[in-house]
Structure formats: structure tokens, C-alpha cells
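Worked example 3 (structure in, sequence out).
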């Protein structure tokens, strides 16, 4: 392989998501060539621990054999068929049943498949609106979501996204989408008391619902722990209060579990972390360990019953992709779910994640520009600040985050920089020794850049 040619071809032919095409012509992204377990190698043969997990996705590491074998076997048996009205296939049936059984504390009744997280969100938003129309309450079309939230790249998801950078180029977006403050302990104008913060931010939801008119609000959508926004963990009372408020006004609660689902938070689903039930769950990434694109929208009994009982003929759901429930993706997911149970993936994420969080939180005391270290399970964000007392996040003009990432890369750890945050989301099969390696590398990288 001619590496220089690869780099030149990348610059010339490949548009990278979320990146300035012109800038990418001049920069050389890391070209990843191989993966095994929690480790990856770049095209120059440099070995690194994958602190990114592909992109919060490769929860079983890069070489899980049962998932690989399931994909190959499905390829031989039936590489593709659709699940539109007239046909279905064995793996889709098996996977939907398996997920519903797995999500029984949640009272999930049915699952709609798609190709990824953005699709899963779009499906949930559409089902929410259709649900209210079927119930004769067509005025309930509005969505409320959180600032800093991330819900993918389709027009519905972008409209509920809480990050201006992801929205601006595509405005005007969906009408009827409103954003409220996220309960963010490190950056909020309200209080340093986390429980009070949970109450205040829940009150903001209630006030927004009342202000909009409760009979106009379809759903509230949020991540149980915000991922892309900088790993923001809400106070423990927030989600239970949100559930109460949604129930009080009949508003549907959609949990976007694209990152938190399947063990990353230390629980199988992030809503379990808060002891709360949603009405719909958006799932992707870890569902197939990222090996094959797959999204799913899990729908609870309350909603499914309304669709099932419809006699007007308007309950058909116009949210089908050619590749919905793709057999190879479904086979990969079935094997992934087996592995999640066999390897106790949520348990491992909780155990080694606690160790990771404890070790890296010390950076706040030892590094002059680390303002906050936060997370749960195996999702962790390190926020870099230009002024610790004022909690001023580093701006894009600072080269410090990139220098930390580069130092880590050289020392054998791949991390992700998002704004002022260094984000860690390693495979959930990671061992305590590998976590120690990550922490050693990061302590060294932050010390080197100080
Ligand atoms: N929702 C959340 C919470 C996400 O973090 C993401 C992606 O990171 C998405 C939705 C979109 O998923 P995808 O990139 O698979 O479309």
C-alpha cells in the first residue's frame, strides 16, 4: 500500500462528515487500517488503544468472532430481503422478538428498524406525531428538547438538536421545535446544588409545556446522558421529574439511547440508570457493535396499542427504508445481544468505568487547564478551559486540545476532540489493565502540554 498516495486520494476524493472540505484538503486525518480487540493500527503500523470505540459504537471491540461468524453465515444464507408489507425474513422476526423481550421492564411492544441513529430518531419523531393524529389530537405536533443535545442529522433530528453549529446551515428547520436548558452542573446560571439544579431544569420543561399549551406538545426528547454535547450527566432526580411532568401533561417521552443503549452507561439502557421508563427509545451503534449499520426505534405498549386499534386506515407508518431490518445487520445484532449478555457488558462498563472515572477526575487537580472531568460508565468527557476560576471553555482558536490528542496518539491512545472536550468512549470489553494504560497515557499527555 502506498501510504502517501492514500493520503492524497483521501484529500482529493473523500468528503468527511462534520468537516470543512477545504480544510480537509490540507490536513491528513489518521488513516486506520486494522483493528483487534480494543486496539487499532493506523496505516503506518502504529498501534493504539481505541479510546473512541470507532465512534461510541464498537462496544465488543474490533474482532468479536461470534458477531463476525453470524455476519458471514447470514451472507451465505440470505444476504438481503426487505420487510415491507408483503414480506419479512427470519432474522428480522428473531431480532424484534429478542429486543422486545430484553426491554420488558420498559414495556416495549414493538420495534421498527432502520439504518442508524438519525433514522431511529426520525422514526420516533414521526411516530409521535402520528400517534397524536390517530388519537384525534392533531394539534399536538410540537417537540421540546435540550440545549447541547444531539439527535442526528436528518431534518427532524437537526430541528431538535441543541447545538447551533449543526443547525445553522440548514435552517429553516421544522417548525414547532423548542429548546430548554440542560441540567449541566459545570455550566449553568442557576445553582451549584445538583439536586436543586435537577428541580429547576425540570421546572423549565414544565414551564415550556405550559407556555406552548400542553395540548400542542407531542413529545420531549433527550439523551439519558448527553454524549456528543460533551458527556453531560444529569442529576439523579432530573429524569424521574421529567417523567412525572410528561405524565402530568400527557406528553410522550423519547429517550435517545443511540450512545447510552446496550451498556455504555453501565446499565443496559440509560433510562435504567435513572429508574425511568420512556415511551420510545432510539437505538443504534452498540446494537450491532457498529459492525454493520442498524437503527431501531423501540415503541411501548401505550403507543403500539393506538396504532394497532386504528380503524381509519391511517396508521400505516411511512418510515421504511429499503434496508430496514437488513438481514445481515439483524444477524449481527442478534449475535451482539448474545455477547452483551454472555460477557455482562453493562457490568464491565460499570466496573472498569468507575475505575476510569476515579483516575481521570484527578486531572482537575493536577492539570492547570482541565476544568471538569465528567461521565458515567465508559463515557467520559474532559473539558479544557482557558480560565479555571471563570470556567471558560477553550475556544477553537486554542491548539491545546489538538496537542493533547496528538501526544496521546503518539503514546498509543486514540481519543476524540469535540470543541473544548476530550471524549473517551472505548469498547465496553476493555479490561482494567487497558483502562490503566489509557489513564497513564492521558496523564502523560496532559502533563506534556501544560
Ligand atoms: N442520537 C445520538 C444521541 C447520537 O449520539 C447520534 C450519533 O452520534 C445520533 C443520534 C445519530 O446517529 P447516526 O450517526 O448513527 O445517524
Amino acid at each position: 500500500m502506498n501510504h502517501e498516495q492514500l493520503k492524497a486520494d483521501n484529500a482529493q476524493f473523500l468528503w468527511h462528515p462534520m468537516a470543512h472540505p477545504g480544510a480537509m484538503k490540507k490536513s491528513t486525518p489518521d488513516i486506520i487500517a486494522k483493528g483487534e480487540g480494543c486496539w487499532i493500527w493506523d496505516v503506518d503500523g502504529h498501534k493504539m488503544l481505541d479510546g473512541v470505540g470507532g465512534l461510541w459504537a464498537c462496544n465488543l471491540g474490533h474482532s468479536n468472532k461470534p458477531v463476525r461468524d453470524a455476519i458471514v453465515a447470514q451472507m451465505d444464507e440470505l444476504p438481503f430481503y426487505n420487510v415491507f408489507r408483503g414480506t419479512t425474513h427470519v432474522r428480522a422476526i428473531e431480532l424484534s422478538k429478542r429486543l422486545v423481550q430484553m426491554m420488558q421492564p420498559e414495556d416495549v411492544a414493538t420495534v421498527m428498524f432502520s439504518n442508524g441513529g438519525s433514522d431511529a430518531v426520525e422514526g420516533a419523531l414521526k411516530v409521535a406525531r402520528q400517534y397524536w393524529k390517530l388519537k384525534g389530537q392533531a394539534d399536538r405536533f410540537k417537540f421540546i428538547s435540550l440545549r447541547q443535545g444531539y439527535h442526528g442529522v436528518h431534518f427532524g433530528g437537526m430541528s431538535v438538536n441543541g447545538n447551533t453549529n449543526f443547525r445553522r446551515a440548514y435552517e429553516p428547520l421544522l417548525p414547532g421545535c423548542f429548546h430548554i436548558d440542560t441540567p449541566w452542573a459545570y455550566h449553568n446560571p442557576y445553582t451549584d446544588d445538583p439536586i436543586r439544579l435537577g428541580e429547576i431544569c425540570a421546572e423549565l420543561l414544565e414551564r415550556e409545556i405550559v407556555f406552548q399549551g400542553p395540548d400542542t406538545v407531542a413529545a420531549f426528547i433527550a439523551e439519558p446522558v448527553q454524549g456528543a454535547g460533551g458527556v453531560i450527566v444529569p442529576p439523579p432526580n432530573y429524569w424521574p421529574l421529567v417523567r412525572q411532568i410528561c405524565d402530568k401533561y400527557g406528553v410522550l417521552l423519547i429517550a435517545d439511547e443511540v450512545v447510552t443503549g446496550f451498556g455504555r452507561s453501565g446499565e443496559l439502557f440509560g433510562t435504567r440508570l435513572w429508574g425511568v421508563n420512556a415511551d420510545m427509545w432510539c437505538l443504534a451503534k452498540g446494537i450491532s457493535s457498529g459492525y454493520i449499520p442498524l437503527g431501531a426505534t423501540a415503541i411501548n405498549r401505550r403507543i403500539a396499542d393506538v396504532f394497532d386499534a386504528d380503524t381509519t386506515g391511517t396508521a400505516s407508518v411511512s418510515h421504511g427504508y429499503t434496508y430496514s431490518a437488513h438481514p445481515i445487520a439483524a444477524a449481527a445484532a442478534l449475535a451482539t445481544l448474545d455477547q452483551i449478555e454472555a460477557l455482562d457488558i453493562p457490568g464491565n462498563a460499570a466496573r472498569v468505568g468507575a475505575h476510569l472515572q476515579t483516575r481521570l477526575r484527578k486531572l482537575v487537580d493536577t492539570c492547570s487547564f482541565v476544568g471538569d472531568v465528567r461521565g458515567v460508565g465508559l463515557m467520559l468527557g474532559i473539558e479544557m478551559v482557558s480560565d479555571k476560576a471563570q470556567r471558560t471553555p477553550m475556544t477553537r482558536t486554542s491548539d491545546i486540545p489538538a496537542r493533547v490528542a496528538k501526544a496521546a496518539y503518539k503514546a498509543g491512545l486514540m481519543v476524540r476532540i469535540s470543541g473544548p472536550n476530550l471524549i473517551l468512549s472505548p469498547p465496553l470489553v476493555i479490561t482494567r489493565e487497558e483502562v490503566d494504560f489509557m489513564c497513564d497515557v492521558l496523564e502523560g499527555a496532559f502533563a506534556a502540554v501544560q
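Notes: The chain has a mean pLDDT of 97. The chain has two domains: 31-60+344-449, 67-342.
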